[in-house]
Write a structure and sequence with these properties.
single chain, alpha/beta, Rossmann fold, seven-stranded parallel sheet, five-stranded parallel sheet
Length: 322
């Protein structure tokens, strides 16, 4: 009996490859950059399952190229805005993702960006390497305190609540949030208060984004939003770059409309080396590393592999979005 065929669009931790390789014939794209569209469509032809990244557009063209035997698309990420879920449902193709595994790591990275932006760490680091550090400076590199401030959470899901817990428990911050629905656990445990988006913009010292990218949230942080924020507010985005209008963010940072920003995501991603977002002293940018810890990436690989194998067998996925 022939083994199922799968295509994996990028190398994942070995624990996942071993699980899949024990059961399936694996075609692994082992290049540092994602496969081009034509190559992707060629490689998935005849596959029973495909393990994808956020870089792959999974739509009707994708499903047509794969063929009728395709049973499952397993996403190595929490987000799945690159996947046409309704098109998958109409073809009875299961779609899985990896929620939960990266909650703590992403919340930690978000808080690291907040501290780095508030205390001007990257700017100070570059100051040293430019041979400008001559003595202790009483007015040098003065940043913002964190203790007792108000943090606004946009999207109080797992990661948003984990970020808020670090702010509340570690620095005694006042937590406010926007969300589609009330979050009683956060309100009880963190004394969080649900407010309107405008109220959050006006009241927050720090704003951290943890919502999905969709038609409603795309570009929600634009010129008008930044102008409603405090002039010393710090904007953190570890969700998706498309949630902020990057040109508007650059202008807000250049003109001191807001104080600083910390980004793990950009739009586009990655930005060109001459993109202004990379050359602002009050903006810290990381290359989408929110989940980049050993245990987190291994856990993601295990979940994505389980989803792939279960989908091929026609069994319920461990983490399903369909």
């Amino acid at each position: 009996m022939s083994r199922p065929r799968v295509f994996i669009t990028r190398r994942i931790p070995q624990v996942g490859l071993d699980l899949i390789g024990a059961v399936c014939d694996v075609d692994l794209w082992d290049e540092p950059l994602p496969p081009g569209r034509d190559e992707l469509l060629k490689r998935i032809a005849g596959c029973d399952g495909v393990l994808t990244m956020l870089s792959e557009k999974v739509d009707d063209e994708f499903f047509d190229a794969a063929g009728e035997q395709l049973k499952v698309v397993s996403q190595y990420a929490v987000g799945f805005n690159n996947i046409d879920v309704e098109a998958a449902k109409s073809r009875n193709i299961a779609v899985g993702n990896t929620p939960g595994a990266l909650t703590a790591a992403t919340a930690d990275l978000g808080f690291a960006l907040l501290i780095a932006a508030a205390r001007r760490l990257v700017e100070a680091h570059e100051y040293i390497h430019a041979d400008k550090w001559k003595t202790w400076e009483p007015l040098g590199h003065i940043g913002w305190d964190l203790e007792g401030k108000t943090v606004g959470i946009v999207g109080m899901g797992r990661i948003g609540q984990a970020f808020a817990q670090r702010c509340y428990g570690g620095w005694g911050m006042n937590v406010i949030y926007t969300s589609r629905s009330p979050k009683p656990d956060a309100e009880t445990q963190l004394r969080a208060k649900r407010v309107s988006f405008d109220e959050l913009l006006e009241q927050s010292d720090f704003i951290s984004v943890h919502t999905d990218l969709n038609e409603e949230t795309a570009g929600m942080f634009n010129k008008a939003a930044f102008e409603k924020m405090k002039s010393n507010a710090i904007f953190i985005n570890t969700a998706r770059g498309g949630i902020h209008n990057q040109a508007d963010l650059v202008e807000a940072l250049k003109n001191n409309v807001i104080g600083a920003a910390g980004l793990d995501v950009t739009d586009p991603e990655p930005p060109a080396l001459d993109d202004p977002i990379l050359h602002l002293p009050n903006c810290v940018v990381a290359p989408h590393i929110g989940s980049a810890t050993i245990s987190t990436r291994n856990a993601m690989a295990e979940i994505a592999s389980d989803n792939l194998l279960n989908g091929i067998k026609g069994e319920p996925l461990r983490c399903s979005v369909t």
